[in-house]
Thioredoxin domain-containing protein 9
Amino acid sequence: KMAADTSVEILQKVLENEILQTTKVVEEHLDAEIQKLDQMDEDELECLKQRRLEALKKAQQQKQEWLSKGHGEYREIPSERDFFQEVKESKNVVCHFYRDTTFRCQIMDKHLTVLAKKHIETKFLKLNAEKSPFLCERLRIKVIPTLALVKDGKTQDYIVGFTDLGNTDDFTTETLEWRLGCADVINYGGNLMDPPFQSQKKFGTSFTKLDKKTIRGKKYDSDSDDD
């Protein structure tokens, strides 16, 4: 018992020492930074300010360029031809292939409208699958809704139905945001190793299993309850 107590004490002392050392290093680093700023002459400070202003100006110009290319809002494109033009001029594009009669497409619309405003670095589009048979065949789109995730003009990934989103109609916007982050099609600020629906599961949220239904006479399935 005594030996065990002694080893616990030693471990505690080692840990305390580690924390002290870390704090010391951080403080020394901060002191050095403050000293560096104190020793800077006016020219150097002016130079630093100019660099900061340049960076802000550049970020503002980039934002304006994105807005001029139709970023910042979720919008419908009328035809397949428009799709090729749109993906050519933007680095990151999310395109929702939808059908008017598919209920789950409306759920997807709701989340994409929010994300388009938040992630101005990415272009968010929707295209009617029934009006784009060539594209659906070429991209092998068989389930509606499907999101095609395009980087540098090439389709890199797909979100097919709600399978990757916790397999529920009640998935959150954060869950879709996480999935887009996994595809590196948006600048994601969260932890990719921790999907939002995992934490939902911890709190006992039950997920309904979705059944894919085949639409009669159509070559793609629908993740919806209509038929």
Notes: Residues 202-220 have pLDDT under 50 and may be disordered. Strands lie at 74-76, 92-98, 123-128, 143-144, 146-151, 154-160, 213-214, 221-222.
